Amino acid sequence: MSRQIAVVTGAAGGFGAAISSALLEVGYAVAATDADAGALERLGGHLGYPEHLKTFVMDVTDAAAVEQAAELIAERMGPGITVLVNNAGIIGRSYCLAQKSIELSARVIDVNLTGAFNCTAVFSRRMAALKYGRIINIASVAGIWGAAGGAAYAASKAGLISASESWARELGPLNISVTAIAPGICKTQMLGQFIDQETAQSADEARIIKSIVPVGRWGTPEDVAEVVTFLATCKTNYLNATVIPMDGGMRVGSL
């Protein structure tokens, strides 16, 4: 493939599928990775098995597996990996008083933060050889505000934001920019672990949302994908170490 290659982790989820589709639309070949082989197969069907999409089973928490996947991507698609979207993530309710909180918290941090470390280390080396790259990390407003019942999730996303800024300093001289997106409340399967779905789908939904989100609606995976494509295709490397909150204006409140 002669196209530039974008690697998307957690590609079979709501954000990942939308991001993969959007990057294909703007001309990238997409290496869609996920730990769930069955979900990857469904992703291909959902997107219509486009010519420039290849799927790869990859567990981001396993550094050796990430290295092996990177080699396979290069073998099947070519060496031109110029975009990495660290999207793989899980939530998991982890109240500090719960008995299993420590085990669940460790898993959340392993996937959300250690996974991004593994992927950034492996794929940034390939970008360095090309003297060009765009690394885009999907964080969360929870990493800025915190989240009751989700300390591990919030901590992992706060860590990802800080890591993004640190990587931006380290990789900027190599013409590799690192940015982060911090989505607010978005309608995905993961939302159900923090938001009461009966409330979210009730007749009062519009009133509830308008009371907390100035734009008056939930966010969508497509909203996030739109910003990912902007960052991926941005020609200037001066947009670096930037964290973009995508919360519909929640942080400033509504009327």
UniProtKB/TrEMBL annotation:
Database matches in Pfam families: adh_short
Signal sequence annotation: none
Gene3D superfamilies (UniProt xref): NAD(P)-binding Rossmann-like Domain
Annotated family: Belongs to the short-chain dehydrogenases/reductases (SDR) family.
Protein name per UniProt: Beta-ketoacyl-ACP reductase
Record key words, sorted: Oxidoreductase
Family annotation (SUPFAM superfamilies): NAD(P)-binding Rossmann-fold domains
Domain Ketoreductase: 4-184
Recorded superkingdom: Bacteria
GO molecular function: oxidoreductase activity, acting on the CH-OH group of donors, NAD or NADP as acceptor
